[in-house]
């Protein structure tokens, strides 16, 4: 195992063997858009450097996928993040995001949220607080822009991330696994 250990949990760079587990986590999250199983495999192959997984006993219990904006390569865009329901509330999402910001060296992070996702909004606000940096929000896509029944997406932009204000590398995981 090449990843960084947090208690019994290991944060790692995804490999294609994680793709199926990531698809299942997205499916079971009941709040993420479920993309094709193929897209998760392809993401693990081509965007592993801007993505992370967390495993317990070799099972993927959380993931974050992201990419650097082609026209703004200092900006890490978070595409999806999910933690298995049984493992929520222990700091795993925060650990994944901190790990990815450090690993990519991104100066800013962008993510979209829907207004009904309190957990997601709290998670990104907490990220800005941990790093002692700013967060701005604007509507990115209105409901009318989606061809199907989809809530508006609001863009959070967080940063700048400065290495001097990085949170402690101490495991943030809370409680027993
Ligand atoms: C959002 C999600 C990834 C959070 O994962 P998690 O591991 O439980 O989050 P963490 O324990 O790392 O918490 C990070 C911060 O968010 C806050 N938070 C997490 N869940 C919360 C909730 N349900 N309500 C309020 N705040 C919440 C935590 O309190 C923490 O902030 P703090 O450090 O100030 O206490 C998880 O709920 C999930 O998988 N949801 C379904 C998928 C989803 O909605 N993804 C986001 C789409 S953008």
From TrEMBL:
EC nos: 2.3.1.178
Pathway the protein takes part in: Amine and polyamine biosynthesis; ectoine biosynthesis; L-ectoine from L-aspartate 4-semialdehyde: step 2/3
Keyword Acyltransferase: yes
Single GO MF annotation: diaminobutyrate acetyltransferase activity
Class of enzymatic activity (EC top level): transferase
Keywords, alphabetical: Acyltransferase, Transferase
InterPro entries per record: Acyl_CoA_acyltransferase, Ectoine_EctA, GNAT_dom
Domain annotation N-acetyltransferase: ranges: 9-158
GO process annotations (BP): ectoine biosynthetic process
CDD domains: NAT_SF (cd04301)
Keyword hit for Acyltransferase: yes
NCBIfam families for this protein: ectoine_EctA
Family: Belongs to the acetyltransferase family. EctA subfamily.
Name this polypeptide is given: L-2,4-diaminobutyric acid acetyltransferase
Protein species of origin: Kibdelosporangium phytohabitans
Gene: ectA
């Amino acid at each position: 195992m090449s990843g960084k250990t947090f208690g019994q949990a290991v944060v790692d760079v995804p490999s294609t063997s994680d793709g199926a587990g990531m698809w299942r986590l997205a499916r079971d999250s009941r709040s993420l858009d479920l993309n094709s199983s193929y897209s998760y495999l392809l993401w693990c192959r081509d965007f592993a450097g801007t993505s992370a997984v967390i495993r317990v006993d070799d099972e993927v219990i959380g993931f974050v996928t992201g990419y650097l904006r082609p026209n703004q390569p200092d900006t890490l865009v978070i595409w999806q993040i999910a933690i298995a329901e049984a493992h929520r509330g222990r700091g795993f999402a925060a650990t994944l995001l901190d790990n990815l910001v450090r690993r990519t060296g991104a100066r800013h992070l962008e993510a979209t949220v829907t207004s009904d996702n309190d957990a997601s909004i709290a998670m990104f606000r907490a990220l800005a607080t941990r790093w002692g940096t700013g967060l701005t929000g604007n509507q990115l896509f209105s409901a009318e822009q989606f061809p199907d029944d989809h809530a508006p997406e609001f863009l959070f932009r967080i940063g700048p991330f400065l290495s001097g204000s990085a949170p402690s590398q101490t495991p943030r995981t809370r409680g027993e696994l």
